[in-house]
Design a protein that fits this description.
single chain, 12 helices, about 15% strand, alpha/beta
Length: about 260
């Protein structure tokens, strides 16, 4: 799959048909691929978790996750092809799994939320082979048992609904040990699949207000972190990216913003 390099972040360039083919070929050939989404919101995490840049090395397909990242790419004349955020990617993969009878497992969220998501998937996508997953409340010492359980179930697609950077670390460290074909770190998408939270309406998303919409749904959990992240993005990250772009600094890497 073709890629563009946006100051060290790799974005995949594909059409809808190419993505379908890629998903099916990965599963049919018993390959192993990680699908991921880069948003501007991930960049402030480099400050606290510089190891994120190492985790990104295992990514095979990367989508533009979030309107602000999409707008910034368009402003700087980067062409990314088919526009697909992580929530939409998950729905796309679920549709494809339902069409072809692939198996899926969920890893993450509270047990009751995970079960609610599994129940909704079984109703909405009756042709999917649903493997009973695991909630996201486990310690580092329990991870070998989780890996063994996933391998026993052998799902075609694994959705990891755990917060960053844990979901990235798990993906990075587990990828080669897992008997699964496609791994998608998808954050709060299990909450969405369960009905606990809702995706922002298309018009809200197009206006770049998806974070505000999520914050309204979960103010206690997201208010402070969303405000701090937005401030960091608007007043530090975007100006630094634009500065390096205008000066044509080709050695500049977004992941190194907090290393200087």
């Amino acid at each position: 799959m073709q890629e563009i390099d946006f100051f060290g972040l790799k974005f995949s360039v594909f059409t809808k048909d190419i993505l379908k083919k890629y998903i099916n070929n990965t599963i049919i050939k018993d390959d192993k691929k990680v699908f991921y989404g880069y948003s501007l919101g991930i960049i402030p995490l480099f400050k606290k978790f510089p190891e994120l840049s190492n985790y990104f090395k295992v990514v095979d397909v990367s989508v533009v996750d979030g309107e602000y990242m999409y707008w910034l790419l368009r402003l700087l004349r980067y062409k990314v092809g088919y526009k697909l955020s992580i929530p939409n990617l998950v729905n796309f993969v679920l549709d494809e799994a339902n069409t072809n009878g692939y198996s899926i497992m969920l890893l993450g969220a509270k047990e009751e939320i995970k079960q609610g998501a599994e129940n909704n998937i079984s109703i909405k996508y009756p042709n999917i082979i649903l493997k009973i997953g695991k909630n996201g409340y486990f310690d580092y010492d329990n991870e070998p048992d989780i890996v063994n359980y996933i391998n026993e179930q052998n799902p075609d697609i694994l959705l990891i609904g755990i917060t960053s950077p844990k979901k990235e670390r798990i993906t990075f460290e587990w990828k080669d040990r897992l008997n699964t074909r496609i791994i998608i770190p998808c954050g709060g998408m299990i909450d969405v699949l369960s009905g606990k939270t809702k995706l922002s309406p298309p018009i809200i998303k197009k206006l770049g207000l998806a974070t505000l919409y999520r914050m309204i749904q979960e103010p206690k959990r997201l208010f402070v972190s969303s405000i701090l992240s937005a401030s960091e993005i608007l007043f530090k990250i975007i100006p630094i990216i634009l500065y390096n772009y205008l000066l044509n600094k080709k050695d500049f890497k977004i992941s190194e913003i907090y290393n200087k």
